[in-house]
Amino acid sequence: MKGEEKVPNKKGLSKEEKEFRKLQRAIAALPKPSFNNPEKAQPLKDVSVPSAVPSSLLQQDILSQSGDDKIQKPADTGIILDKGGKKIERLAGVKKPKKLKVVGRVLHYAKKHWWLLALSIFFGLINSIFEIATPLIIGNAIDYIVGPNDVAFDMIGKYLIALGVCIVAFSILKWLTTKTANDLSYRIEQSMHDDIFNKLNHVPLKFIDGASHGDIQSRMINDVDQITDGFILGLTTFFDGISTIAMTVVFMFRINIPIAIAIVCITPVTVIIAGFIAKRTHKLFKQQAKELGDLSGTLVEMLGNQKIVKAFEYEDDSIQKFDDINTRMREVNRKATFYSTLSGPISRFINGILYAIVAIMGCLFALKGAMTIGNISTLLSYANRYTRPFNEITDVFADIQAAFASAGRVFSILDIKDEVSDFGMPEIKRCTGNINLKNVEFSYTQTKNL
Question: How far is CA 67 from CA 12, 72, 158, 345, 357, in A?
Fold first, then answer.
């Protein structure tokens, strides 16, 4: 009948078409390959395995032709390129480390370079002294400006010299604090890289072969960077902030106790809000680290095995797989970034209210003669400086949460048990080279023998 498509039978196939059909069946009968060992997917020459072809495949006309005699794309048997490697901790049966142990292990790396940590804390303490002294000098200088033609320029000159010394010293010590903190983070990062590299050289090969190589690379590079950015730099920021807060409180109480109490009571609200937000966003940053590892694994597997991708016409599926992971990562990154950055604007809003309260209370005390204009200026500066460490800590909360998730992924690799070593075993004195193999089976996975 007209309009019906005629499909040639098997006997009408040309010699080239028969060879192509034979090759397709041989490839379909191969076991599922692993991207970590592309040789598993390479068909041998002159393969003749008609009996090994799955029955489902025999029922399909893989080389069926349309009416215009164009060969269609082979049926997707779902044999390869649709499954990435598993997480290495799942293959090794490693349990997730607890938060307190994670912090302790990170500090153990910092302990190896304790002198850099001590220098960073010391420079931060001295730096805080000059930082706190600056508003006090400015406030005292303002009090010598009484009115028109009533300015004690000699005293103001002395205070300006002292102010210049404080500014120069503050700048130098700030640079030293940052430099020592960066040196500490670089050394810790190098130590972690060395430990991960050594661990990967001693774990059973099946764990590396079965895991996603891109995910392992992401842990060694991205996660280690996140640990040093979140924990180490956050640690130095914490000590610097604590010293600034303590000294600021002492000087504020010396100037005016009621205003100092107002500042101390209102400021902790920002810390409570930041802690609440950080607790809610931890799961998002954990998911973000996981998606980043999956994305890296997909890139390494697809780009490193282009021949396999093209041989099985998997280009469209690989793009779709990448788009799916990228979409999930974009959504979780957007949510984690948005919710974690809420702490910054909220804390600054509260600090603005606190600044207004200090100004109003200072003016009321000044009208009563209990404070000078210089004291009000000093307290306003202290109000900003007292809240600055809280703002810095809330700003790094996002990095700290991401560092927790990254540290768990890194230590999951370091907790894998090493391969049993033959070190110390008796040495073979004489070897004839005769080996008998009986009841030996080979498999890439424990559930399927070849």
Answer: 15, 11, 99, 66, 85
